[in-house]
Design a protein that fits this description.
Strand order of the largest sheet: 1-2
Radius of gyration: 15 Å
Oligomer: single chain
Largest sheet: 2 strands, parallel
């Protein structure tokens, strides 16, 4: 398998790229700087898409663009896994 990470932060992408290289994973892991709400260039590419706590941090008005990007990037029959936090999931002091 191969993995492609997408982040809007060039710093995060650079650090992830360095970490993958340090672990000998450059041939299987790549990272791109992009806005997930306007992601292009990956049409039908991914058989599995994982969102680890991004969706709930996207402004409500941008979520439609996010979902369209995910749908466009998903291959037919792709799995889509999303980890989100429900409003009120944590005590107020957190």
């Amino acid at each position: 398998y191969t993995v492609t990470g997408v982040d809007i932060s060039p710093t995060a992408v650079a650090e992830a790229t360095e970490a993958a290289a340090a672990r000998g994973l450059s041939d299987r892991a790549s990272f791109v700087t992009a806005d997930i709400t306007e992601l292009t260039g990956f049409d039908g590419r991914f058989s599995t898409i994982v969102d680890s706590t991004l969706f709930h941090s996207i402004p409500v008005e941008a979520r439609d663009g996010y979902l369209k990007s995910v749908h466009r990037a998903a291959a037919p029959g792709a799995g889509f896994f999303v980890l989100v936090f429900a409003k009120g999931a944590f005590p107020p002091e957190m």
